[in-house]
Amino acid sequence: MSNRLIYEKSPYLRQHAENPVDWYPWGAEAFEKAKREDKPVFLSIGYSTCHWCHVMAHESFEDQSVAEILNKSYVAVKVDREERPDVDSVYMQACVAANGSGGWPLTAILTPEQEPFFIGTYFPKENRGGRMGLRFLLTAIAEKWSADRAELLHTASEMTAYLKQETETGEAAEDLPRKAMEQLMSSYDKEYGGFGWSTKFPSPHNLLFLMEYAAAKNDRKPREAVEHTLRQMYRGGIYDHFGGGFCRYSTDREWLKPHFEKTLYDNALLALTYTEAWQDGHMALWRETAENTLDYCLRELKAPDGGFYSGQDADSDGQEGAYYLFTPDEVSNVLGAEAGKHFCECYDITAEGNFQGKSIPNLLLNNRWSFLPEGYDEFRERLREYRAGRMALFTDNKILAGWNGLMLMALSRAANAFSDRRYLLEAQELAAFILHNMRADGKLRARLCDGELRFDASLSDHIFCALGLVELYAADFDPQHLLDAEALAGELKRFADPRGGYFDTPADGEKLILRPKETQDGALPCGNSAAAVLFDRLFRLTAEEMWREALDQQLGFLKTAAGQYPASNTYGLTALMRADGPGRETVAVLPDEHFPDELKAILRKWSPEMAVLVKTPANAELLAAAAPFTGSMALKNGRPTYYICTDGACALPVNL
To answer: 570-580 and 204-217 are packed helices; what angle lies between their axes, rounded to 10 degrees?
Structure first.
């Protein structure tokens, strides 16, 4: 018999709709029931492509004995963290405070007033290996709740009070970019690339920061660390050598064994990172990897009606990574014995395997990695097609506004850098989709799934979509993109904290036990970091004073919020470096829509400190609305004319 999750659109929630657990979605109905029946709330937060969420579901939530305890003594609530990042943020903060770390599945037990008094992550069904079992935990807390709940309520009150206390910010430190660089480089793995020595996350925003730091400070070492990391990630099993794109993270130091889920946001940010690496040096491998990653997203994640789905599962046929694993016999059956033998030698596909008796294709042992034999592109494509027919890979069909904003950034940057009209058309289509399909009642919404548009868009949703539109302006120079980006940025007043910075949720949004406010980058840049980048881009392009003031205020907030670990705010520090460094703005006034060669040369050069606007007879009026200072700029001698400003001082217009 189905539970209430059968009426939800989230693929993750629907995966639990046939559980014997009487699940409720997050909402008033569940908490009113808990109050009415005087029961604690069992809260489980996860997402559809999470391997350990599947494990806990199979062990416990599909088990009748666990369901009986939950249904009798609790009100069980299931949350998809990707469509409710606000709920996830509140209880993940509690988990980290209580345990020193967090992760998914996130398991919490709350009072009917939503206050947590017990919180953790994965629990096996029975006590095992020093880890408490879920059945034991649920039984013990149910007994405590019935017999003597005073201690539980006291814990809930204390934990909630701790979460609500204001975060103390320190003094504004000096030279934050240098300190952030040093902190990152102190954990740099010189042998295998990346940062840290066990589980490794790509963290693209850290790589983007180091590239920009290296360019701004003329310091080659951070750039070398980035390039080594990009190369090793490409060579490793975290990269899908047959289908393109990257898995979520590596479970080992060598980048060989990934956690096999693929997410839109990781691949969008990594495509952007490899594209930016290509822009400064034009190394062919960076472009190939960026294009293969974007092409994976276009092939596997693009929805038929527009927009991009959120990700693909780590598990297939109940086995982690099964979709990606190969044996030598499979390869030989597809490619033939002779070609299969050499291909397996190249990609480390062996009889003994490197993961659960099979092999994750990789180039880590291949010292000829940059000189793959002719014809291997065709071989990889044949194996990709064979793999796709071998078993299904579940795709989460939620379309999330912020993640699509990141994809818009990546497509737009690739269109500009590679002069690729295909990516430009995809970016323009995506921008139109976001603006036309992800808004209701004049406001951006967070999630579209099976035709249902729902949930308040977060701070980062607004900012990532706005940054995507700014990137698209740099690719096609349509001023409407700037106007749309400014409109989204104007909505940030609904998120403003009078004490500085921004909350993650709007003032008119759903009220939780606290209003989350992330000030440190995680798997994604946090909204407060990204806000500084957006304000910097808008001010450079429009010269509007309100964006300069917003930038100054946000940088002031970030300087204190960064505290003793500025490496936790690397994305925002790129805006700080640009604000402290030399700025250049160029307005090209053209007699028609034709781009002269000298303008193309300007646009091809990687210059993160430069902002370029293009004025033509067709867009002059719209551009003046977005950037009023361009209104008086005119052609000189009837030829393409350039107005070049450096550090706030503008030279006379010139014909190059």
So the answer is: 20
- Structure tokens, 359: 């092999």
Domain assignment of residue 34, yes or no: yes
For 234, the token pair is 């490409």
Structure tokens at 46: 């996860």
Provide the domain count of the chain.
Answer: 3
Answer whether 346's CB lies under 8 Å from 366's CB. Answer: yes
pTM higher than 0.85 = yes
Query: Looking at the domain assignment, is residue 327 inside a domain?
Result: yes
Running DSSP on this structure, what letter comes out for residue 569? Answer: G
Query: Six-digit token pair at 410?
Result: 């990546």
The tens digit of pLDDT for each residue in 580-601 reads 888 888 999 999 989 998 898 8
Cα–Cα distance measured from residue 54 to residue 49, given in angstroms and rounded to the nearest whole number: 8
E strands within 18-149? 24-25, 41-46, 75-80, 106-110, 116-120
The per-residue pLDDT for 424 is 98
* 287 belongs to a structural domain: no
Q: Cα–Cα distance between 202 and 266 in angstroms, integer? A: 8
CB atoms within 10 A of CB 189: 18
Q: Which of 136, 164, 192 is the last residue of a domain?
A: 164
Distance between CA 578 and CA 555 in Å, rounded? 11
In a domain? residue 434: no
Q: Where is 242: in which H helix or E strand?
A: none
Taking alpha carbons only, the member of 494, 490, 428, 486 closest to residue 458 is: 494
- Give SS3 for 22: coil
For 593, the domain range is 584-650
Q: What average pLDDT does range 423-427 have in this prediction? A: 98
* 383 within 8 A of 242, measured Cβ to Cβ: yes
Which residues, at least 6 apart from 109, have a Cβ–Cβ distance to it below 8 Å?
40, 41, 42, 43, 74, 116, 117, 118, 119, 141
pLDDT classification of 50: cutoffs 50, 70, 90: confident
Q: What is the pLDDT of residues 102-152, one digit of tens each?
A: 889 999 999 999 999 999 999 999 998 878 999 999 999 999 999 989 999
What are 326-375's pLDDT values in tens digits? 999 999 999 999 999 999 999 999 999 999 999 999 999 987 655 677 88
- From 144, 164, 184, give the residue that closes a domain: 164
CB 263 within 8 A of CB 197: no
- d(C-alpha 345, C-alpha 383), whole Å: 15
**2 contacts 50 by C-beta, under 8 angstroms:** no
Q: Cα separation of 160 and 115, whole Å?
A: 6
The enclosing domain of 67 has a CATH number of: 3.40.30.10
Amino acid (one-letter) located at 583: G
